[in-house]
Amino acid sequence: MATAQKTFEGMQKQREELASIRSVGGLFRSRASQDARRTAALRKKNGAWTPLTWGELQSNTEEVANGLVALGVQGGDKVSIISSTRVEWSMFDFGVAIAGAIAVPIYHSSTAEEIRYILENSGAVLAVVEDPKQLAKLREARSRLPRLRNVVVIDGEGDGEWALSFAQLVARGKQGGGAREIEARLAAQKRDDLSTILYTSGTTGVPKGVMTTNDQMLFASEVVVGSGLLSRDDSHLLFLPFAHSFAQIIKAAWLGSGLTMIFAESVDRLVDNASETGPTVLSAVPRVFEKAFNNVITGGMAQGGLAGRLFRMAMAEFDKYAKAKDEGRAYSSFPFTIAKKLVFPKIYQKLHKRFGGRIHTFVSGGAPLARKIAYFFDLLGFNILEGYGLTETIAVTSVNLPGFNKLGTVGRPLPGVEVKIAPDGEILERGRHIMRGYFGMPEATAEVIDSEGFFHTGDIGEVDRDGFLRITDRKKDLIKTSGGKYIAPQALEGALKTMSEMVSQVVVIGDRRKYVSVVVTVAEDQAKKLAAEAGEPAGTYAEAARCNAVRAKIQAAVDQLNSTLPSYETIKRFTILDRDLSQEAGDLTPTLKVKRKVITQKFKSQIDAMYDGESVD
Fold it and tell me: Is 295's pLDDT higher than 50?
């Protein structure tokens, strides 16, 4: 209760500090003026990490805003930003905000057709693109985008007319003299005005534009900063794309607290960047923590001699500990005590150093985190805090907090967030964090926001006696076998990934089928190594995936998982795909979630082959 009271008091204080702020643009202006000389961001420039103060960020942002006004962008106009996560993205985003326009972020991995749809649907009059590659996508679709008047290129040259370089935009702004106009627009902004339109990923249908207001963003700042999850003294390492709501609440906390934002070069360079910059907080999707876990296992199992024997003993004990935790039991043994004294502290020190030596909190969101991985990080001594939210709720609903963390849950609903569970188990929410609706889709909006103002999340969950929320699965993702049994695929997928470091990705199959099967991809380096050790040398991923030793390793992981499951839920067959899943191939979302529908369509023949004859009982 003490922590709950502290959270409430922190939010009250933050709410009072933001009471006079009416918009995201106003929040940015307030932060920049208060902390002009303080470091706002770190970004890698010419091979070195370079600080950018709030004052410098404001100067760049004002140049952008003036340029937008000079190009004829009006208050309420839509301006799209198509870029990877970088500080220039924020300059344009904040420039759009203080100019009174509405930002429409788009994932830089989107195809030309996906970009065209969002630009057309939103009615964007201007787009900002990262480089010539993104510009080419717009040129391809230009004839079908009559409302798109201009494009600005962050890195690259424009033609000086339809496409402008960053420098050309700034020059237009200096000639236009729009400073007075910007002040008038800022003064007129209201909390109920739209700030951003975030498009859903479209993995289950046509992307929908989620209308996010200034007040939603200010509420996000209140809860994330007021709860103590992120604070002024933090340095946050960011790789998440701003087209995702998870990154949007981090942005809100950045503005609300004045913390230092470290812009990672890419997800592939994330851990290296952490080692170089020493962040205190890293927010990430579960896939990042899965990879860290598997890397620890791979490295430890490769050790020889006494160290290798101790590591294997420690992990065997950890498996027993994790099973006991799942069953609500305590676990202790002499080998486990030895492991906690000799093995786990060394793993902690290695990981702590690898992440820069200052990290105190990992925040996981965007998808369910496997309990076993949460147990592992917690056992080592890290704060790993899982939270929950959707695009429609600006990623705000609940989160575990330091000192008030119940593993296996997504925390308690934050103050101001009302949650109730419908008779069928669906999670319903109401509060300031709920979207205004889907842009241009009143019927779709009415389908998810009822007459009492409750948003129907589509997630199945429960609230325990301590008030912690637990997510069991997506309502639409539940699989119903031909025998009438309901199965939660995400739980199975997450569990199988923790059974072996060999497993990379998993997709559970079984809807309207007689039994459950899975398609699996493997960690390429591990598969090649195992194949070579078994006398089955493999030069490519596909060759390694076909090796008997690799298949036997996956079979062992499946058998281990099946031993914990009721018979109707056990995995009867599996197929190892001849390549791993990737964003480039369109298999994964930008936040590394599997596009289930895409996979079932792409690999239909392999899936059907697992059901030939359907003789497995």
Answer: yes
In whole angstroms, give the CA distance from residue 133 to residue 124: 20
How far apart (Å, rounded) are the C-alpha atoms in residues 554 and 522?
9
* Residue 1: pLDDT band with limits 50, 70, 90: very low
In 3-state terms, what secondary structure has residue 449?
A: strand
The percent of residues in the chain predicted with pLDDT above 90, rounded, is: 77
**pLDDT tens for each residue of 516-539:** 999 999 999 999 999 999 998 889
For residue 488, give both structure tokens.
């939660």
- Residue identified by tokens 């639409």 is 476
**Which CATH superfamily, name and number, covers 479-609?**
ANL, C-terminal domain (3.30.300.30)
User: Global pTM?
Assistant: 0.86
Judge whether 277 and 253 are in contact, CB under 8 Å: no
- Looking at domain 23-189+230-280, which CATH architecture does it have? 3-Layer(aba) Sandwich (3.40)
* C-alpha R_g of the chain: 25
Q: What is the 3-state secondary structure (H, E, C) of 238-284?
A: ECCCCCCHHHHHHHHHHHHHCCEEEECCCCCCHHHHHHHHCCCEEEE
Q: How many other CB atoms are found less than 10 A from the CB of residue 404?
A: 20
Pick from 598, 450, 581: nearest CA to 503: 581
The number of CA neighbours under 13 Å toward the Cβ of 214 is 26
Query: How many CA atoms lie within 13 Å of 89's alpha carbon, on the beta-carbon side?
Result: 27
